[in-house]
Design brief:
This protein has 251 residues and is mostly beta strands. It contains four helices and eleven strands; from the N terminus they run H-H-H-E-E-E-E-E-E-E-E-H-E-E-E. The chain has helices at 3-9, 25-31, 74-81, 197-201, and strands at residues 90-100, 110-111, 115-117, 120-127, 135-142, 155-165, 173-183, 188-196, 218-227, 240-242, 248-250. Strands 2, 3, 4, 5 and 8 form a five-stranded antiparallel β-sheet that branches. Strands 1-9-6-7 form a four-stranded antiparallel β-sheet, with helices on one face. The chain is globular and about 50 Å long. 20% of the residues are buried.
Length: 251
């Protein structure tokens, strides 16, 4: 116990000669706060009957901060944003980049070049000024045309990442990842709110002082991984239906 506390606990000894002996504890402590007659600082904590420990935290230098990979380092980007899913067998992988040089002049709905993965065509589907939102909308689409549709029983269990990145500074990028069971009826999947348009063209993407789209140019990269379906229903969207007999069924 420090001297001030020890003296305050003694009923007949006043630590301040100019304070009345009959002053209660609250009055005597109040006079000792900063701005009062003394120089003792009291924190606004409820410390009655409890010791307040002070934690001194020293950064652990052995813990490495995640390194932000450069967008053109495809393997590092894939490792960061598209980790392998446990207990699933990878059948096929592909990476494709669409280099856009006239962003503001793209149509309302634009498609990137086709690329092959797993024996089927794929491509990026872009709404450059948003699919009814103030965001660029970005999707991965199976690239079959109307005259080259896949079989009705076709499907692909796909894990994918879409990345938008600056053509002038590959450290400026944004990415989103999803899993989807593609089939003849669900041919595209992705992100309606992928990147906010205002931020894409402003010169301060994530505090970098640069914009995502510079000189009307930007890159879009698709990372695609197709998995073996061990159950036949991997990522299948079941539909609940009630039959005429009143029973619930799943399709």
């Amino acid at each position: 116990m420090d001297p001030v506390s020890r003296d305050l606990d003694r009923q007949n000894i006043d630590p301040r000669p100019d304070m009345a002996p009959t002053a209660d504890l609250e009055t005597r402590l109040g006079a000792m706060q900063v701005g009062g007659e003394g120089d003792m600082l009291l924190d606004d904590y409820d410390t009655v009957g409890e010791k307040q420990d002070v934690a001194i935290i020293t950064p652990d230098e052995s813990i490495d901060e995640p390194i932000n990979p450069l967008a053109y380092d495809y393997e590092a980007m894939k490792e960061r944003h598209l980790p392998l899913l446990p207990d699933l067998e990878v059948l096929y992988e592909a990476t494709n980049t669409w280099h856009i040089e006239n962003y503001r002049h793209l149509p309302k709905k634009a498609r990137g070049p086709k690329f092959e993965c797993g024996g089927h065509p794929w491509r990026i589907l872009l709404f450059p000024f948003g699919n009814n939102v103030d965001f660029a909308s970005l999707y991965l689409e199976q690239g079959h045309d109307d005259n080259d549709k896949p079989p009705d029983d076709w499907y692909a269990c796909v894990q994918f990442t879409l990345v938008m990145w600056s053509t002038h500074d590959p450290s400026i990028h944004t990415a989103q990842t999803a899993n989807h069971r593609y089939n003849a009826d669900e041919s595209d999947w992705g992100f309606t709110r992928f990147a906010e348009l205002r931020r894409m063209f402003a010169g301060r993407w994530d505090g970098s002082g640069k914009s995502m789209v510079e000189n009307d140019a930007v890159n879009l990269t698709a990372y695609l991984r197709i998995y073996q379906d061990p159950t036949g229903v991997l990522w299948h969207k079941f539909i609940k239906s009630v039959g005429l007999d009143g029973r619930m069924r799943m399709y």
